[in-house]
């Protein structure tokens, strides 16, 4: 049974969300402010944290930053009333896995939660091979094949594609890609990321200028399309 921590200071919203998720079969706990959320998330293992941004004592961005800094790996879904693009980018750069803007549809929220928890299972399972379309990404061999033939990739291209495929469905900002593929101390521009994505599209996409797998998320970054992928 997956364990979820709800972080919401509005009692009515918290109770409704808690009841809804318990009916879905999850084990649910609730924290009412940022400091309590940080403490509980560090003391106990949760598969997912549903984290409101506007909280007393410590806001959701600070909670997210602190949890990632201290090595908490739980999936984080941010709930925000802010619609500004910069706020969404900030949350993703701080380590959030997804976000929803209030008011939200309970049905969509449940779907987002299921998708995040599926990715938790995929990543923890140490998937050795990911298949998508006519492509096969083999992590043990360090090899990309398309229609059975090896596709030449640089080590950097393989790391970039592997990172995005393992986090399929999740929007990754350019800064996150730089930090995890090139390294935090590397001084490169975001344009370099765009160029590498363009190179990969030529190697894996049926129609590179109409990408099916490596999707752009305007103003934020990129997402590997989960719906057209299988694993083995």
Descriptive report:
By secondary structure, this protein is of the alpha/beta class. The strands form 3 sheets. A 5-stranded parallel β-sheet has the order 2-1-3-4-5, with helices on both faces. A 5-stranded antiparallel β-sheet has the order 9-8-7-6-13, with helices on one face. Strands 10-12-11 form a 3-stranded antiparallel β-sheet. The C terminus is likely disordered. Helices cover 42% and strands 23% of the residues. Strand 4, helix 4 and strand 5 form a beta-alpha-beta unit. It has 2 domains: 122 residues, Response regulator (Rossmann fold, 3-Layer(aba) Sandwich), CATH 3.40.50.2300; 103 residues, Arc Repressor Mutant, subunit A, CATH 1.10.10. The protein is built from 8 helices and 13 strands.
């Amino acid at each position: 049974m997956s364990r979820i921590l709800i972080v919401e200071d509005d009692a009515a919203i918290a109770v409704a969300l808690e009841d809804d998720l318990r009916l879905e079969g999850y084990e649910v706990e609730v924290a009412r402010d940022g400091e309590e959320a940080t403490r509980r998330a560090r003391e106990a293992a949760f598969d997912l944290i549903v984290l409101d941004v506007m909280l007393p004592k410590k806001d959701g961005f600070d909670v997210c930053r602190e949890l990632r800094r201290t090595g908490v790996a739980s999936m984080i879904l941010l709930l925000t009333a802010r619609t500004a693009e910069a706020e969404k980018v900030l949350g993703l750069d701080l380590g959030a896995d997804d976000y929803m803007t209030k008011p939200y549809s309970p049905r969509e929220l449940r779907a987002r939660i299921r998708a995040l928890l599926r990715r938790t299972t995929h990543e923890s399972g140490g998937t050795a091979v990911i298949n998508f379309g006519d492509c096969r990404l083999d992590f043990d061999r360090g090899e990309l094949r398309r229609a059975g033939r090896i596709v030449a990739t640089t080590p950097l291209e393989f790391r970039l594609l592997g990172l995005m495929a393992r986090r399929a469905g999740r929007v990754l900002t350019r800064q996150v890609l730089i930090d995890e593929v090139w390294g935090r101390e590397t001084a490169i521009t975001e344009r370099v990321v765009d160029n590498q994505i363009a190179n990969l599209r030529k190697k894996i996409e049926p129609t590179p200028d109409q990408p099916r797998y490596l999707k752009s998320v305007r103003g934020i970054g990129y997402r590997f399309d989960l719906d057209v992928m299988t694993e083995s």
